[in-house]
Amino acid sequence: MKKHSWFLSVVFTMSSFAPPSSVEGWGVFARVKFTSTFFKELNEYFLVPAFDKRITSLAGSEIILKGYYIPFDLPKNQLIISKNPYSACFFCGGAGPESVAEVVLISKAPKLKVDQVITIKGKLKLNDKDVNHLNFILIEAEIVN
Fold this sequence. Notes:
Blueprint: H1 2-16, E1 23-24, H2 25-30, E2 33-39, E3 44-50, H3 53-56, E4 62-70, E5 78-82, E6 100-105, E7 117-126, E8 136-143
């Protein structure tokens, strides 16, 4: 019995020093509320997120997203990932802005096919001001599958 209690105490002690696990992002993004806002300088409406304390506390944290590669003409170290396939993604009018993320990789993106399923890990950056970028951005990111 003493052997088992010693083993359990070592396991519990080691687990308390384990690094925090990554957060699955799509579920977090889905809780964000958006408001249609008119941008006079662009003469157009955009959906603007209202980030609450729960999501702002995750800014800078490691997030994991598993989704579909969406092709865009971006710098070689950037890409767009969607919770939904291309035919049902945000850009085709089939989903909301919470279903896409901009990704800035630490290195050049590999050659990917439309709708290729990939898993991305990176630090969350929130954007509620710049309409030239998505609301959810993963920086210092890497493809992990």
